[in-house]
Amino acid sequence: MIDRAQALALLKEYCKEEVLIKHSVATEAVMQALAKRLGHDPEQWGIAGLLHDLDYDETKEDPARHTLRTEEILRDKGIGEELIEAIKAHNAEALGIEREKPFHFAVTCAESITGLIVATTLVYPDKKIASVKPSSILKRMKEKGFARKVRRDAIRECEKLGLSLEEFAELSLKAMQGISDQLGL
Ligand SMILES: [Fe+2]
Predict the structure, then answer these.
(1) Backbone dihedral region of 80: left (phi > 0), alpha (psi from -120 to 50 degrees) or beta?
(2) I want to staple 158 with a disulfide (CB 3.0 to 4.6 A). Which of 33, 40, 82, 109 is the partner?
(3) Are the C-beta atoms of 104 and 161 separated by less than 8 Å?
(4) What is the mean pLDDT of the segment spanning 78-95?
(5) How far is the CA of 132 from the centre of ligand 1 (A)?
(6) What is the Å distance from ligand 1's center to 20 Cα?
(7) Distance between Cα 124 and ligand 1 center (Å)
């Protein structure tokens, strides 16, 4: 198993865009909070969040390859199957595979809600995540025209983890508020 520092170094080796690094760190924070809430391993779940889009720069024009390049990179490093599976699962639709386990649903809903939270923060007058209320996230979730690229159905997979949308939004917001300096929000 790779540790957090090694995972971050790997992320910075492959992802050159600041926005992608912030998205990855935000997903990590939400994954750690989910693991703590559900009794899973926060380090392993956090690393999956951190590395889920590792190959994005290379595969952004070809969604059917997204996460498969990451699989090669991680396999080369001897990283365990569970982590690789969970990362691939967030692109299950394009890969023609199924999400089956809590770990799989978690990466999917966590990486999706981060975009909604960032977009909601940016329409607050002060653009500070500390000011954002969970109810704003829920309101924006229902507005289909707001942050259109955010996959609402993927966020709703929190229900497969036994979490209501309300609880998931609150947990995710808190997790991201805890690293506001790293997110620049
Ligand atoms: Fe992502």
Answers:
(1) beta
(2) 109
(3) no
(4) 95
(5) 22
(6) 8
(7) 23
CA distances from 40 to 31, 53, 176 (A): 10, 21, 19
pLDDT 10s digits, 5-58 = 999 999 999 999 999 999 999 999 999 999 999 999 999 999 999 999 999 999
C-alpha of 20 from chain center: 11
131 CA distance to ligand 1 middle (Å):
24
Output the pLDDT for position 75: 95
Distance 24 CA to ligand 1 centre (A): 7
**0.70 cut: is pTM over it?**
yes
Query: Would you state the pLDDT for residue 1?
Result: 78
Q: Bigger pLDDT: 80 or 48? A: 48
Cα–Cα distance measured from residue 56 to residue 171, given in angstroms and rounded to the nearest whole number: 26
Measure 48 CA to ligand 1 centroid, in angstroms: 11
For ligand 1, an ion, list residues with CB under 5 A: 53, 111
Structure tokens at 117: 């939270």
